């Protein structure tokens, strides 16, 4: 009897998911993958299974991964000193080369391997491949506390996407493959630039007109001052919550990425707890959802 109930429950789950399969068939989902999930074998396996399932039901997932801790560990191992300005790593030529080696090499191919073990076909690329991302040097300023004058920060070879050509992504997805993208771009000047993975994912989602941008984090989503999850936000909501201090710290740049993506062609963005087993599937294929959805609103 229990076995029959389990079978019926599984059938009901599939029926609940059916409208979402139909809604998203043929659309792109851009998933930024990083943080705790990348260092946990079980979480990495479940992430790969989720991505393969998305592809199997007709959705085109594009994975963008980070790797800050792994880059830091390799720099330390090689005895390369690292400096930070306002929390951002200053990237000289040697650091940029090591970052590319770690991101496009070890991390990228580990994710490709995980997807293969889950039964999918993945292809590992970076923003350099096929002219995917043309980068420009990231410009940041900081106010000098003594003179109150804005000073330009030189972060070295840290960039941001200036132009995106999605042809290589469309070719790969059309051939049944799952692109796994390292956040590296090349500038008009020929230099290699390291790009923030959230920013990279947002730019790709906008260029693809993706149905969803998904930023996997290590928090449940955006919380109000009572610690309750805010499930739906618009850019205007985010502006208000930032002004009153509800949103702070590392959540600010994530939500700025979400806003920029949805205002530039992505249907909606989700900030989601990557530590929850199969959180992506709960978000996409159930009425309950999970995490915080950011959309343009009405």
Could you walk me through the main structural features you see in this protein, from its secondary elements to its overall organization?
This protein has 298 residues and is α/β, with parallel strands linked by helices. It is 41% helix and 24% strand. It contains 9 helices and 16 strands. The strands form 4 sheets. An 8-stranded mixed beta sheet has the order 5-10-2-1-13-15-16-14, with helices on both faces. A 4-stranded mixed barrel has the order 6-9-12-11. Helix 2 links the parallel strand 1 (28-33) and strand 2 (60-65). The radius of gyration is 20 Å and the shape is globular.
Characteristic terms for this protein:
single chain, 298 residues, alpha/beta, 16 strands, 41% helix
Task: Briefly say what this structure is.
This protein is of the alpha/beta class and 298 residues long.
Low-confidence parts lasting 5 or more residues at pLDDT below 50? none
* Span of the ends, CA to CA: 48 Å
> Tally of extended strands?
16
Helix segment tally: 9
How would you characterize the largest beta sheet?
Answer: 8 strands, mixed
SSE pattern: HEHEHEEHEEEEEHEEEHEEHHEHE
Average pLDDT, to the nearest integer?
87
- Cα radius of gyration in angstroms: 20 Å
In the sheet with the most strands, the strands line up as: 5-10-2-1-13-15-16-14
Helix content: 40-55%
Assembly state (oligomeric): single chain
Helix/strand class: alpha/beta
Q: So what's the overall shape?
A: globular
Proportion of residues in β-strands? 15-25%
């Amino acid at each position: 009897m229990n076995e029959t109930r389990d079978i019926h429950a599984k059938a009901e789950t599939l029926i609940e998911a059916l409208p979402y399969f139909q809604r998203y068939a043929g659309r792109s989902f851009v998933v930024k993958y990083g943080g705790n999930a990348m260092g946990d074998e079980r979480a990495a396996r479940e992430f790969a299974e989720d991505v393969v399932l998305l592809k199997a039901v007709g959705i085109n997932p594009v994975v963008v991964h980070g790797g800050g801790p792994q880059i830091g560990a390799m720099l330390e191992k090689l005895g390369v000193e690292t400096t930070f300005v306002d929390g951002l790593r200053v990237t000289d030529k040697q650091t940029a080369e090591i970052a590319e080696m770690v991101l496009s090499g070890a991390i990228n191919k580990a994710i490709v391997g995980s997807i293969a073990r889950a039964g999918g076909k993945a292809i590992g690329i970076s923003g350099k491949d096929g002219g995917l991302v043309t980068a420009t040097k990231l410009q940041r300023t900081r106010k000098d506390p003594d003179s109150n004058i804005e000073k330009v920060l030189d972060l070295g070879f840290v960039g941001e996407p200036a132009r995106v050509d999605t042809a290589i992504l469309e070719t790969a997805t059309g051939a049944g493959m799952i692109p796994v993208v390292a956040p590296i771009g090349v500038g008009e000047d020929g230099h290699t630039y390291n790009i923030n993975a959230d920013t990279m994912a947002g730019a790709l989602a906008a260029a693809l007109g993706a149905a969803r941008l998904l930023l996997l984090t290590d928090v449940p989503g955006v919380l109000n001052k009572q610690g309750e999850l805010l499930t739906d936000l618009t850019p205007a909501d985010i502006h208000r919550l930032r002004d009153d201090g509800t949103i702070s710290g590392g959540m600010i740049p994530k939500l700025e990425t979400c806003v920029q993506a949805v205002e530039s062609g992505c249907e909606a963005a989700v900030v989601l707890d990557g530590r929850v087993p199969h959180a992506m599937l709960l978000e996409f294929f159930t009425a309950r959802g999970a995490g915080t959805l950011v959309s343009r609103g009405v």
